[in-house]
Amino acid sequence: MAEEQKMKQLSRFWIWALSSIAFRLILISFPGNLNLSSRPEVSTPLTSIRRLAEGYWLKQASMSPYAGSMYHGSPLLLSVLGPLTVQRIKGQPSHLLCSLVFVIADILSAMLLRAIGQKLQMAYGLNARLLGFLKSSRDKVILPCGDIAALVYLWNPFTIVSCVGLSTSPIENLAVILALFGAVTRRVPLAAFGLVIATHLSLYPATLTIPIIFLLGYGLDAPPIKLFLQTRSVENEESSTSTVSKQAKLKQTTHLPFLWKTVAHFLFWVLLWSLYVLILCALSLNKYGGLEEMFKRTYGFILSIEDLSPNIGVFWYFFAEVFDFFRNFFLIVFHVNILFMLLPLAIRLKHRPCFLAFIYLAISSILKSYPSVGDSALYLSLWALFVNELLDMKFSFFLFCGYLGISLLSPVMHNLWIWRGTGNANFYFGNAIGYACFQIVFVVESVSAMLNHDRALKRSNSNHREVKS
Predict the structure, then answer these.
(1) Strand, coil or helix: what is 88?
(2) Which residues pair with residue 88 across a beta bridge?
(3) Selection from 312, 310, 342 nearest residue 436 by Cα
(4) pLDDT tens by residue, 265-311
(5) Residue 411 CB coordination number (10 Å)
(6) What is the DSSP letter of 38?
(7) What is the reported pTM?
(8) How remote is the C-alpha of 323 from its chain's centroid?
(9) pLDDT computed for residue 256 by the predictor
(10) How far apart are CA 434 and CA 441, in angstroms?
(11) Distance in angstroms between the alpha carbons of the first and the last residue of the chain
């Protein structure tokens, strides 16, 4: 019966997955890709395929791809996707091959998410059995978080418009998910490769170094170690000779052994892949300023926020209004704001490294210089990996309606401001502020729900111990 149900669930998953792929192929067959590539919510100065095509054209004309301040992405991405942007069908430029690359990237990302979810689901069930919760509540159903996360990624409207709108976000998301997959499955070179490529493409995924180190050092997400120690102390209560010996044993095992050798191996591979990527970039830009030009035009462009064209973030409006005298001060404040949150969250959530990675990505999506809906698609899919722990999350319906409303209002406000002229910049900026607020509430409620879940486990474990005694 269980096998039959599992096969039915698997066939249902593949039907939905293949339907999402077919839906993408139908959308990319429309002429002009539904004009999504020009939407500020989808394409940013870092992810626009039009800017990439311009950079490739400049390089083919023996000029620097960064000339004219159009392209600000990776030279390696330019070498891979650039040739696909010059393909023509019936004499007209066609980005069909680029669209197919992005569809493949989405498929790979979904499959990797599914594999990560299956690992987390197994760990969740194992921890529940070790704590004795599955024995006391046999009717408890463990949701297939891998299948849910993969389908959330494939059917998320943000993911679909990023793919159809020819944004390079699907490739960046694939690199991030690849890094997490490598860490979850303990494939150290793969985790290092994904992290290096993701950081090279977007800079902000560098924050994932901390969760990946925790994953490799401590292992997968689990309840706090004290719960396991309390359970073990109850089971071995009769064999303990005195309270002093019990306390001594508890003190000796309050810390998990950290696998420093694996982490050192990971850092070595990060260094190796970084050198390899830098060498390739140097060879690619040998005639156009080398690595110095690349750092200035990519990472320097991200940190200095030179392009103030509208997007779904809040920086463009703020730096358009602020006096130049205060510009550098506020640049430091906004960028350091991300760094200030890393250490407290790492201390509090070190026993849940995958969830910590999700929180870091969500915070980066809120505070990054040039955000797009592709960033939200990534962290929303990672959130689905924790459906078993976050079932009691508050304001879920409110947040769903908020994301939906902002998604519908954003193009309307942009049209009123830019095309009809009946509005002003405050229309679109107000929408961006609302979007940021909903994301902040989403992050806060997710962290609160996870901490409440850990507290509920602690209370259940205490009750279980009292019943046993």
Answers:
(1) strand
(2) 93
(3) 312
(4) 999 999 999 999 999 999 998 888 888 889 999 999 999 998 888 99
(5) 14
(6) G
(7) 0.89
(8) 33
(9) 60
(10) 11
(11) 37
To which H or E segment does residue 356 belong? helix 353-367
Its sign, for the CA torsion 181, 221, 250, 345, is: positive
For residue 255, pLDDT beyond 60: no
Instruction: Give the pLDDT of residue 245.
Output: 47
- The per-type count for the chain, helices as H runs and strands as E runs, is 21, 2
Torsion angle of the four alpha carbons 179, 185, 187, 193, in this order, in degrees rounded to the nearest 10: -10
Phi and psi at residue 353, to the nearest 5°: -65, -35
Give the CA angle between residues 407, 203, 323 to the nearest 5°: 75
Amino acid at 340: F
Q: What is the DSSP annotation of 94-149?
A: --HHHHHHHHHHHHHHHHHHHHHHHHHHHHHHHHHHHTTHHHH-TT-----HHHHH
Residue located via tokens 């944004």: 167
pLDDT exceeds cutoff 50 at 370: yes
Local structure of residue 418 (DSSP, 8 states): I
Comparing C-alpha atoms, which of 1, 345, 409, 378 is closest to residue 159?
378
Please report where in the chains the tokens 């998410």 appear, as a residue: 113
